[in-house]
Design goal:
The complex is a heterodimer of chains A (174) and B (65).
Chain A: E1 9-11, H1 13-21, E2 34-37, H2 38-47, E3 59-62, H3 69-77, H4 82-94, E4 98-100, H5 104-112, E5 116-118, H6 120-129, H7 135-148, H8 155-169
Parallel strand pairs in A: 1-2, 1-4, 2-3, 4-5
Chain B: H1 11-22, H2 29-43, H3 46-62
The chains are: A alpha/beta (174), B mainly alpha (65).
């Protein structure tokens, strides 16, 4: 599917790293632009530099200016790291409504700021809806999460989700 | 019962913690460490994480973007 003409999204490090660990960064390739705050860029550069070289995703490094006071307050309340705080600040300052993050605290902070937050699992599942991947491919990727990625998720929860998706998409088990 | 821990803290974080105590925002470094840990644990509860992941799955399946 071609890139949308829609608004950009802002990314925290988690989904960029985890999707690249799965060789599935292309599932965010249909976003017009994925804005990456400088602090997040440095974090990804340190842990998974190849994620920043993906040809199919338009990653744009963005400088974050003054952090809005309400973002500072929410970031302190949720003990966010600089990257997470800057990603939220970029959303608020530039009126971007979506942040991509796997961090629970950052997701809570996003809710407080009335932003939508989506993570690696949601983005993988969305790729079926967007026609980028098949259900069978996405189920295989989800099952590979514990072995191939640094994303932390309780194994039994992941198994429940996979079972629900198999049922939803009518994909038989192994 | 209290437990003892030994941990390495980056210099910058340590200076910020000390400044909080000196400015009177916390009674001592023990309070800063306890409060930091409490807040971190509050925002990383398993039940919260699970709820947010389930919301993400629902969006992945039926979101409108």
């Amino acid at each position: 599917m071609a890139r949308t003409d829609g608004p950009p999204v802002v990314a925290d490090a988690g989904p960029l790293i985890h999707l690249d660990e799965l060789s599935a960064l292309d599932v965010i390739g249909d976003y017009a632009e994925v804005w990456v705050p400088e602090a997040v860029w440095r974090e990804v550069e340190r842990h998974r530099p190849q994620a920043l070289q993906h040809q199919g995703v338009r990653l744009v490094k963005r400088r974050v200016g003054r952090v809005p006071e309400r973002v500072k307050a929410v970031a302190a309340l949720h003990t966010l790291h600089m990257g997470e705080r800057d990603a939220l600040a970029l959303c608020v300052a530039e009126a971007v409504g979506v942040i991509l993050t796997d961090d629970t605290a950052a997701r809570l902070a996003a809710k407080t700021l009335d932003l939508a937050a989506h993570g690696t699992l949601g983005l993988l599942i969305r790729s079926v809806r967007r026609g980028l991947r098949t259900p069978v491919e996405v189920i295989a990727l989800l099952e590979a999460v514990p072995a191939l990625t640094t994303l932390h998720i309780r194994p039994s929860l992941l198994n429940e989700i996979v079972a629900e998706l198999r049922s939803e998409w009518r994909v038989s088990g192994r | 019962m209290a437990n003892m821990i030994q941990a390495e803290v980056p210099e910058r974080l340590w200076r910020q913690a000390e400044a909080l105590v000196q400015q009177g925002w916390a009674s001592d470094l023990q309070e800063v460490v306890n409060e930091s840990l409490r807040r971190y644990l509050e925002s990383h509860q398993d039940v919260l994480a699970e709820q947010l992941i389930r919301e993400d799955v629902a969006w992945g399946l039926r979101g409108e973007d």
